[in-house]
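Final report, Chapter 2: Outcomes

The project's central promise was a pipeline that accepts a single protein chain and returns its three-dimensional structure in a standardized token representation, suitable for archiving and comparison. That pipeline is now operational. To close this chapter, we reproduce one record exactly as it appears in the project archive, with the input sequence first and the structure output second.
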Amino acid sequence: MTVKIALLNEKMGAEEFGIMIKAKEAGMDIESVNAKTLLFTQNINTNYDIYINRCKSANRRTKISEFLQSLELPVINTGTVEKISNDKALTSLLLNKYHIPQPKTCFLPYNSLKGDTGPIFRKEEVNLVAKNILNELTFPMVAKPIFGSWGRDVRRIDNEQTLIDDIKKNYASISNSGYYIQNLIDKAFDLRSYVLKINGKTMYISGFARVSTSDIIFRSNTHLGGMPVETQLPSSIQKLCCKATDVITQDTPNALLALDLMPIMNNSEERDEIYSLREESWEKFQNIWKLRDKLLGNYQLSIQKLLDAEKPLKIAFRDFMCQEPYIKLKKLIGEHVMKKELLINESNASPDFWLNTRYVTGVNLSDLYIQCITASIGGETIGS
């Protein structure tokens, strides 16, 4: 019997086409499905045996996976995994429960209302919220939306007045029902790591560093200026990543997660050395993005366009990774990773991977999705 696979998405991107390429190479029957048009009723009749949920909207992705999971239909990732990963407060609570090191964090279910001319709030409540936070955290702090990714709406808080002003403007919405804030960790880079769970067995796959621009422009997401650098994690940290993944994926035997980790780097001179090498390496990395935009950015994507772009992008990444400043940066980051305390910060259940991850680490997450599919339908996987 042929197994039918639905690749759920709002619009096919490079990652989704990459999954289709690998599925077809494996002889699988896979179909792109517009997730926005799915109809769930009391008498749903599905035409698919397994679903890969790659919706860009985290809220949509979570809700659809929850529905599919409730119908006992295999989905990567499950609604429970999506819900935990999409909710920073819930992720923090679980990591804390299982004694997994993370930045010191506070969550308060407080919001202001957005009025016609400004925020609507009770002054005594705002002051109490600020007081409670100051009893637990120290400046600088970082406030984040509970739901969201790509570093959107992440704010640095340096003093009490800024904290109070930020609390006032923490508006209530469908996707925001509280105030989430952490101690800001001094660092020049963070680490993106990938963990695969197959038939209940969790294994670390690979990872890389994402170097920030400066202490002021501290967000490390690559689309905000973070620069990827190949990095090996020590076995102790790999085990920590697997433990965190087990905590988040308790309800499912098959899953694929990206975890973000932070090194504690209190020495400003160490951070400045990394920023300096990043700056020396930046021009050739910028050339990669210009090439990507030229080859893929202005066109309707297709499998053929991705295949045509493969060789020139590979050459550009090789040129970037062979330059002397990058090699020095890679060595320096590796030394810091070995000696610094590392904290797990967030989980991502549907990471981007086609450009930076594939070329910097040499790992194509499409292969891992195929392993999840195979395991979910009872087939043999690598290492089984």
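Archive annotation: The chain has a mean pLDDT of 92.
This record, like all others produced under the grant, will remain available to the consortium after the project formally closes.
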